[in-house]
Amino acid sequence: MPNPMDTIRILVTGGTFDKEYNELTGELYFQSTHTNDMLRLGRCLLEVEIETLMMIDSLQMTAADRALILERCRAVPETRIVVTHGTDTMAETAAVLGAANTRKTIILTGAMIPYTFGSSDGMFNLGTALAFVQTLGEGVYVAMNGQCFPWDSVRKNKSMGIFESVDLDTRRLS
Amino acid sequence: MPNPMDTIRILVTGGTFDKEYNELTGELYFQSTHTNDMLRLGRCLLEVEIETLMMIDSLQMTAADRALILERCRAVPETRIVVTHGTDTMAETAAVLGAANTRKTIILTGAMIPYTFGSSDGMFNLGTALAFVQTLGEGVYVAMNGQCFPWDSVRKNKSMGIFESVDLDTRRLS
Amino acid sequence: MPNPMDTIRILVTGGTFDKEYNELTGELYFQSTHTNDMLRLGRCLLEVEIETLMMIDSLQMTAADRALILERCRAVPETRIVVTHGTDTMAETAAVLGAANTRKTIILTGAMIPYTFGSSDGMFNLGTALAFVQTLGEGVYVAMNGQCFPWDSVRKNKSMGIFESVDLDTRRLS
Amino acid sequence: MPNPMDTIRILVTGGTFDKEYNELTGELYFQSTHTNDMLRLGRCLLEVEIETLMMIDSLQMTAADRALILERCRAVPETRIVVTHGTDTMAETAAVLGAANTRKTIILTGAMIPYTFGSSDGMFNLGTALAFVQTLGEGVYVAMNGQCFPWDSVRKNKSMGIFESVDLDTRRLS
Q1: Which SS3 state, helix, strand or coil, does residue A78 take?
Q2: Distance CA C72, CA C9 (A)
């Protein structure tokens, strides 16, 4: 296991994870990240550095946004990075980061239900992501549904709202 | 990484994790485990087998109880096991399991706040435990506060309500 | 006070009160009313009859919808009625019901935050509405923000997300 | 209806309403009242004056404590008072206040589940209490379970955890 005192970088990009409900308009929107609150609630004592890169729905994420995420993954001093991300295009961003071969351990995670709505899967997913990032070797992974998928064999099943392995699925079909 | 389709055994022993509030008496008590609810809330899709061994406060745990936990760790077919446990004597049980050298990966976890009280660290800890159990090799570990401690170098700091590494602490003092 | 055993009719029309989060689309929608859950959570022992008339955003409410609400207020045997309603046009519906002079006690209430989002004002408002409906005489009222406004002197201040008395406001300005 | 701008005095005495969970000891205890948080969450815009008289379990309440509550009910300038109180002896305190004939409207309320445990009946009860206190005439009442009981005909049914009318019960038995 890595030295638990090594700092983990958390790069925030938005996604359902951090959505809020605007009670004046009845719409969902982004304010600031809840990652700090969640870590406090989880009594997390890991040394983390939280950095908000953007606060957007991942369907709005552009190639330039992904380039920025990659750039920050490369530039930060930490070799262990968690990226919070909307689920809709999480696999695409993972592919960009994976193909770039940064020689770091990068875990993307997110949520299906906003943290502020009380019954969030975000706390659980953040827990898995922070554990995977400490124990896995170099590579880019998606941590969702308790599982950890390598970047080159994962996709979101949008009709079911879950992540699945592309390979596994192929095997099942054959 | 292990095959994500390998079943993980979750052995439930009670602890704050699963405490309930009795509104007639105003006291905390145990009913049945919330592990299933928590996994559903976390949208966890790992294959797990949940087995309740006991539902007790870990201060009440006896040598016989620990012998039973060890026996079940050995007897179950799974090689990856999560034990939910009260925090007060989690390190003692970890020591019993660790010394027995079961050749399995066993993660003990728990919570400072009951799941039913809404603001629980249980969801976060359960997430970390399920991730550590998939990625770590043989051994017995305590997963609390986002960290993972080997059984032979962990203790609960009861005045602060956190877990800490014995070695680390020694180094700090020297 | 009225006989507490007299049944209270609750007419459900939708509104933020009953909105849900669709985790597949990330949108808010209506399923079925949470009124029963809320009464159970509130340990409410009043005899109530819950009837869902529609499940809509009150901005979508038509004159025909309001005519139906009025018709049901008249037709039900109960003389004490609570109408759950979106806040945006609650005052308009109150005006339709008030002008009709049904000789019943009718309280409209709602919420700014969906009940399913955890931090709802719905529980509080439902409590006030059920108390006001037991104690006020014939008339139509809006119960929001802990207050009870007669139908002919209330409006929603949409920029602040609160209800206010029209008369009171006039007095303040003069 | 009374002028909604009249201030309501809220006298806090403790009770389950305000209990907290001490994560170091695993015990329930009192810190400071949550009444303000609850009113904010309920978007309550009534003018209230919150005063903490004591923070105790109502089973610990002495005659001297009740004398203090009565004294404050008399001394405060407001004629509309809500007393938050443990449920176990709420009826006893109501009887003391009721017999004293203060010529004010006094509503006692409380909760079966602590507010901090998420699924509290406290928000609902506080809503009913604040509505009853605005609409009822002079007298002392217990507001629980959505109902409002005069002080001289209410008791807690401890085996069921609910409040019931003494008279009503007599009628049922006859």
Answers
A1: coil
A2: 10
For residue B87, the 8-state DSSP code is S
Backbone angles phi, psi at D163, to 5 degrees: -100, 145
- Predicted pLDDT at D142: 98
Distance CA D170, CA D174 (A): 6
Q: Does C162 touch chain D (CB under 8 A)?
A: yes
Angle at B58 between CA B56 and CA B62, to 5 degrees: 90
C56 touches chain A (CB under 8 A): no
Q: What is the pLDDT of residue C168?
A: 53
Catalytic residue among A13, A16, A84, A109: A16
Grouping H, G, I as helix, E, B as strand and the rest as coil, residue B136 is coil
SS (H, E, C) chain D: CCCCCCCEEEEEEECHHHEEEECCCCEEEECCCCHHHHHHHCCCCCCEEEEEEEEECHHHCCHHHHHHHHHHHHHCCCCEEEEECCCCCHHHHHHHHHHCCCCCEEEEECCCCCHHHCCCCHHHHHHHHHHHHHHCCCEEEEEECCEEEEHHHEEEECCCCEEEEHHHHHHHHC
In contact, B147 and B158? CB cutoff 8 Å:
no
**C113: closest CA of chain A, how far (Å):** 6
Closest Cα of chain D to B105: distance in Å? Answer: 29
Lowest mean pLDDT among A80-89, B26-35, C161-170, D98-107: C161-170
Quote the strand ranges of chain A, DSSP E.
8-14, 19-22, 27-30, 48-56, 80-84, 105-109, 139-144, 147-150, 154-157, 162-165
Cβ-based neighbours of A14, under 8 Å, separated by 6 or more: A30, A54, A55, A56, A57, A58, A84, A85, A86
- The total number of residues shown for chain A amounts to 174
